[in-house]
Amino acid sequence: MVKRSIAFVGALVFVLGACGGSSGSSAEMYKGCSNEGEKAQGADGVPLACVMNSVGQLMWDLDGNAPMEGVAALPLKSVFGGECNPDGPKSYSAGIGDASQWSHIVPLGAMTTTHITPVDHIYVYYPQGSDGSAMGTFAITSPADGTIVRVEDFRKTNDYPYPDYRVVIAHSCDLYSVFIHVGELQGAAAEAASAAAASGSWSGAIAVKAGEVIADESQAPGFDFSTFATDAKVEMINPASYFEKESWKPFTANPFDYFPADVKSAYEAKSLRNADPIGGTIFYDLDGTAQGNWFVKDTNGYRGKGDEKASYNNHGKIAHGYWDTHLAFAPDNVDPKSFIYSIGDWEGCPCQFMSVGNVDPSTIKAGGAPTVVDLVEYSYLAPDGSPMDPNRPVKGYTLQPSTSVVGSVAFQVNSDGTMTVEKRPGKDAASFTGFGADALTYVR
C-alpha cells in the first residue's frame, strides 16, 4: 500500500509543542514564541528554546543544549502538552475500527527501513485492493471519551498528495491515543483539519466520545496506532536520549491491554505475532549487553543530526536522515527467536539484517573481546515452511536468513556502558583484525 511505503516519516515532534505546559495559565504562556533562539522554562521546569518548525512557524521545543536533570520525571501530560482531564478514562471502552475489515496488524517493535529502533506503534492493514474504496467504507473511531489536542496535516508538512493526518487524543492525563496516517477527518475532528490546513499543524481542545468516527480511511486504507499510558511507563536505561525527540517513548503501552476484552480478542487475532505479548513491545535494552537501542555518541540521541525528511540520493532509495546515527540489535517483532541487526547508515542506507548463526545480542556482554558477525538479508516463511510473500503476511511467520554475506559488523560492549561499533560493508568477519579508523562509539 502507498501509505506503508512512506510510513517512515512518523509523527512530527511536538514534545511540548506550541502549547508547552500542561494546563491552565502555563499552557497559555507557552502557546508560541517570537524570537528564534529565545530561552524559557516550561510549567514543569522543562528548559525550552524558541525554534522554527517545518512549516516556518516559531514554536517552543525542548532546549537540547540545556541541562536535563529532572526531566525524566515529567508526567505524561507534559509530554504532549495541552489540556487533559485528570479524572478521564484510564482504559478504552470502544475500538478504533472494525477488525473484520482488516487483513492483519503488525505488532509493536518493527524495525524496518528508517525505523531503525523498534517502533512504538502498531500498523493496521486492510486487504490488498482496498485503495480507492467508496467514502464511508472504512472508518476510524475514538477508543474512549477524550479531547483531540493535536493534529498534523502531512499534506503540508510532508507533501503528501492525499488526506493524511496525525491525531493525538487525550483521554485523561494518564492515557493518550495517537493515530498516524489516517485519512479525511470526520465529525468533530474535521474542525481541527480545517484549522491545520493553513499551517500544517493545529493544537487546541475538541471533545470526542468513545466510538465516535474521527476519520474516513477509505481512500488509502492503512494506519498506525499508539497508546501511551502512565501505568505502562518503563524505566529506560537512558531516557535522556529521547528528550529532544519522541519523549513519550517510556510511556509506550501494548494497545491491546487497554481495550475491552471482546475488542482485545478480535485485535489479537489479527496480530501477526503469536508469542506473548501478542501486541509486541519496544523495550529490548539490556544493560551490560549489546542488545537494545544505541546512538552515536554526541549526536543528540534519538533526534540525531539529520533532517526529518528522507533524502533519496542513494540510487533512488531512501538514504540519509535523522536515523543515520541510530543502531538496534534486538529480536524481530513477529519472530522473536530471530535477531535483527538494524543499522541507520549502511553505505547511506537504513537497513536491517540477520547474522550468520543468528547471534543473540543479549549474550554479548561487557568485558569481552570484540564480536564480529557476518550480516545477511532475509526472507519470510509461512508457518507451514513455505516461502511467504511479505506483502501477504501470515500470522506466525518466521524469518529465513539468506546465505549471501553482504558484510559484517564488529562491536564490543565497554565497561562504561558504551559500545564500540565498526560497520564493514563488503568485508566478512574472518577478515577482521581489530577496530579501524571507521569505528564509532555508541551510547544508550
CATH architecture of the largest domain: Distorted Sandwich
- Contiguous low-pLDDT stretches (5 residues minimum) are 1-31
CATH topology of the largest domain: Glucose Permease (Domain IIA)
Question: Strand portion, in percent?
Answer: 25-35%
Helix content: under 10%
Oligomer: single chain
Can you describe what's shown?
With 444 residues, this protein is mainly β. The chain folds into three domains: 194 residues, Glucose Permease (Domain IIA); 57 residues, no CATH class; 152 residues, no CATH class. The strands form four sheets. Strands 4, 5, 7, 8, 9, 11, 13 and 14 form an eight-stranded antiparallel β-sheet that branches. An eight-stranded antiparallel barrel has the order 15-16-17-18-19-20-21-22. Strands 1-2-3 form a three-stranded antiparallel β-sheet, with no helix packed on it. It is globular and about 65 Å long. It starts with a helix and ends with a strand. The relative contact order is 0.12. The N terminus is likely disordered.
